[in-house]
Amino acid sequence: MMMMGDTFGSIGSSIASLFFVWATIQQIFPNHLKIAIKEFILSSFQQLCFAQRVSDHLTNLFSPYVEINFPESDEYRYNHAFSAIETYLGSKATEKSKLLKGSQVKESKGLVLKRDEKKIRDEYKGANVWWEIVTPTEGERSYKLTFHNRARSLITESYIQYVLEEGKSIKAKKKQTKLFTNNPSSQWVFSQNMWRFIDFEHPASFETLAMDPEKKEEIMNDLTAFRNGKDYYKKIGKAWKRGYLLYGPPGTGKSTMISAMANFLNYNIYDLELTAIKNNSELRKLLTATSSKSIVVIEDIDCSVDLTGNRIKKDRNSMERNRGQDKDENSVTLSGLLNFIDGIWSACGQERIVVFTTNHLEKLDPALIRRGRMDMHIELSYCTYEAFTILAKNYLDLDDHPLFGKIKSLLKETEISPADVAENLMARNHQVDVEGSLNNLIKALEKKKNSQMSKDEKKNNKFRIFG
């Protein structure tokens, strides 16, 4: 068979030679000879193509080997079998490999050596198999598995399942939380490369989160119930997903809350930038390309696209103006976002959390944040005394101090964000000065209090004038 393959492998060069000969003939021979020679060359070409087809058919008919391809995506959904295979093959011992790849992604970690071979041989219960990564110039990557036909049942019924389970197990043990953000659709290649990511290394935790302990406990219990709720969601006939709305003034810890949630659950974060999405169709594709055990985040949703206020129909003049605008203008609609949250497409995945953040709750359409879409509304407000004690422990390693009483009194009368409190407690030049930090905070609180009292007086005077 190999000799036959080598023989017909020269067909391509033979055809090229025929075309070269024909070009030469064009310059030398008279017209009647040209026509006769042309018919002969065409006849020979047809015979060669027929021979090639016969050769391919015979090779496929008599070859004892079977091939299975595992593409990186199935239509526009990510193929998780590809990921599991990649992890499994990457974990194979490197001692016998002659081609290795070295990388150091973190300065604190040593050099990591991995196989860098296009073909990898594996053995399973006495059967030999060969894996090959196929990377075409255009299109998606795939893994090709080749094995002898006599081992078909062993490979298809046992080995492949073993590889997938091993790959998923290895990935779970080594899992590093990732932070994803969406690429503009102009950078997508055959529905690939939708998301780019980095390792997520934010140290936030619920233990260090500055908020009321009872509210914190409530959120943690809700997250735990969701993570363990697969059977419950199936029983009640709902998609295994949950929505959280985080709202409050700037600096009150909304982004930190998301980081704490991700670290608590060990879920990946998908930071969805709506302004980089052209339409609802792209929004659906991005959703289906996210993995399970993930948190999909849209921060400052009131600022992302025009989804605020009541759904009032625009007048005809406005519609006419919009028709003349650039087609590439962002056209993600409220309806498309609602389908993204809890429509049919939202069920394409398991164990997924959707989080919205906003500084202006009153600007959001009620349909967007109703219960069932945003199941839990979490207000992150100004710093309370309970939140301050957590910050004092985090920054100053302090449980109590004589100045705490004065700070407690000022916090009751002053609106200040936890971020501002933390800034005053932070060590200067890495030197902790307890007295200095607490006094700085007291000065900041008194200044804030006076400023707020001055604003209130101006408002009262304004009402007196017009009253």
Automatic annotation (TrEMBL):
Entries under PROSITE patterns matching the protein: AAA (PS00674)
Gene Ontology process terms (BP): response to stress
SMART domains named among the record's database cross-references: AAA
Keywords: ATP-binding, Hydrolase, Magnesium, Nucleotide-binding
AAA+ ATPase domain segment(s): 240-384
Catalytic activities: ATP + H2O = ADP + phosphate + H(+)
KW Nucleotide-binding (keyword) present: yes
Source taxon at top rank: Eukaryota
Cofactors: Mg(2+)
Pfam families found in the cross-reference section: AAA, AAA_assoc, AAA_lid_At3g28540
GO MF entries: ATP binding; ATP hydrolysis activity
Family: Belongs to the AAA ATPase family. BCS1 subfamily.
Protein name from the UniProt record: AAA+ ATPase domain-containing protein
